[in-house]
Amino acid sequence: MTTTALYDVPGPQARRRHLVYGLAATAVIVGLVVWFVYLLFDTHQFTAQKWDPFTYKGIQELLLRGLGNTLKAFAYAAVLSLVLGGVLATARLSEHRPVRWIATLLVEFFRAMPVLVMIFFVFVALKVQPLPALVTGLTLYNGSVLAEVFRTGVNSVERGQREAAYSLGMHKSQVMTHVLVPQALRAMLPTIISQLVVALKDTSLGFLITYEEFLHAGKLIASNLDYGLPFIPVVMIISPIYIGMCMILSWLAHVAARRQRGSLKTEAVEVAEPEPGTLLPGAGAHGP
Hints:
The protein is mainly alpha-helical. It has ten helices and no strands. It has helices at residues 12-42, 48-51, 57-92, 97-112, 115-125, 130-155, 159-167, 172-202, 214-222, 231-263. Helix 5 packs antiparallel against helix 6 (130-155), helix 8 (172-202) runs antiparallel to helix 10 (231-263) and helix 9 runs antiparallel to helix 10. The longest helix is centred in the N-terminal third of the chain and has 36 residues, at 57-92. The radius of gyration is 29 Å and the shape is flat. The N and C termini lie far apart (74 Å).
């Protein structure tokens, strides 16, 4: 039996066991799905009364308006979080100790505070409108998390890159802009996108402060007695849309990472072969 560097290739008995385990796991999953679908039918979740709301133009416009508000809040929060994260990361990387201390205090404070508490504080205590309150809470939390991502990414770049840039006469801002950040971005990109996905999902907290986002629209439909409280149908409509938006973000991150890797590749340059009798520069015929 041959082996690999990581594991032994399974033999005939092991392959049979794996086949049995796979069939058993598949049977369990299929059984759970069948049981779940049976419960949905048994509780009358597919009756016309519960699904009729989605055929009305007013309900469709309500959902589309909620989806638009969700995307608007996410766009504001994403841009502001990236900006705040960059500012705080720059301050934490500063050579001035007071600046580093203040930035560290802000980052640790906003990372420790629950997002909902910050949203409610801005909305209730400061009497801010729902959209700015939601965006502020999301920005403070996600910006502080991204600040640590940026700082860690920059510090992960090999020290020799920094020293080589300084030896060429670059000052600190040039080293950060042209050397450290472009290299750190490749390592940071997956984590940045993951944090933006968190921000997208946290926009659903807006319904607690009466912001008319996607989940708030679904809540209005699900709590309607005229349609038999269609909670499960609303979940079955809204959940795939949230999942789809998160998958689109992940796909964009994959595309960006692939293009960035491609931009680092260099094409081979063809060099003409030297002709016979070619002299080196500065060389001449030898005298007698």
